[in-house]
Amino acid sequence: MNAKITRRHTLAAFALAATALSPFAAHAEDVVKVGVILPMTGPSASTGREIAAAIKLFQAQKGDKAGGKKVEVIIKDDTGVADITKRLAQELIVNDKASVIAGFGLTPLALAVAPIATQAKVPAVVMAAGTAIITEASPYIVRTSFTLPQNTMPIAQWAVKNGIKKVVTLVTDYGPGIDAEKTFVATIKENGGQVLDSLRSPLKNPEFAPFLQKAKDLKPDALFLFVPSGQGAALMKQVSERDFAKEGIKVIGTGDVTDDEQLNNMGDAVLGMITSHNYSADHDSPENKAYVAAFEKANPGLRPNFMSVGGYDGMALIYAALDKTKGDTNGTKLVEAMKGMSWTSPRGPISIDPETRDIIQNVYIRKVEKKNGQLYNVEFSTMANVKDPFKAAKAAKK
Ligand code: PHB
User: Fold this and answer.
1) Of 161, 196, 302, 391, which has the fewest beta carbons less than 10 angstroms from its beta carbon?
2) What are 184's strand-pairing partners?
3) For domain 27-146+285-357, which architecture applies?
4) Tell me: the pLDDT tens digits for 21-32?
């Protein structure tokens, strides 16, 4: 026998035994890896910053154990580019052996990983993106953020109730914006209202001025707005410069526009703006008061926004699923465990629809007000347990 080979085998066997017996090395099977992919840099960096902070807070508060295992979170920056999201998802699953992937700051990024989640049978928890169709792209996708139809329907109904007849819509030209536009337009038309124009601004290098001028010239009763988190301040600066109120035009929208992370810097011109959304840092509940205080203590100068709760609740869902499977990381079992789960989030009561794997949650109508010298979205009306209306309509047709 070749002595060299024998020696190498012996060494290899020794190394293997040493690793297995070492009291210092955490056993691989005792660690569950959660691969979180977020835009930590680039135009959507605020989404990454908010979600990463919320995940850290969750683990600081609840510890790193779930289902008897150590939960290790690996955060990767996709810079908001879908090809990078895809590559990172593959690397996290194949090289790092992640049992769950999560994050996804924009719709195209969530859609890019759907085929990977399906093929690898690994749960993908969407903590941010909001186009309705996302959960239909893979049976392994579960969402803890929101959908745009869900968040838009209440403000459209509010507009109808408040005598708004003629509207113009201005949304960002991609999945969530188109969902918001469709929902708003349908509700207005169903109630005898008139849509004077539906304008769309590009996602990259957004230019609002020509659209806002056009909207103003059309003299609607209301202008409905949607832009993704991070673009609200730039949009509202241009809105304030045009004084729509003077023309008798109400400016309304989804809460993405009056995003808590940027709201306080938007200035008094946004005072009184009405929006509907799933989360406000001002939400009046003991859970939210504790959440905001802990978040702000851990991240001085940063207010938690709706993206942060998507991340916080995403972690709560992953922990609860691992507890339920007693640490079994089989992806199909984890998704089954997530279906139908319900708990109290800082945003209010939430659950995962067992049929669609999408979130069911309250949507609130809010008004921008000043409290202790700071601007907040103050909730004044609640639509309870809202299901994604697109999926509810599909289910009704079946
Ligand atoms: C999305 O890309 O789905 C998205 C991003 C930011 C939002 C809403 C939706 O505020």
Assistant:
1) 161
2) none
3) 3-Layer(aba) Sandwich (3.40)
4) 555 556 767 999
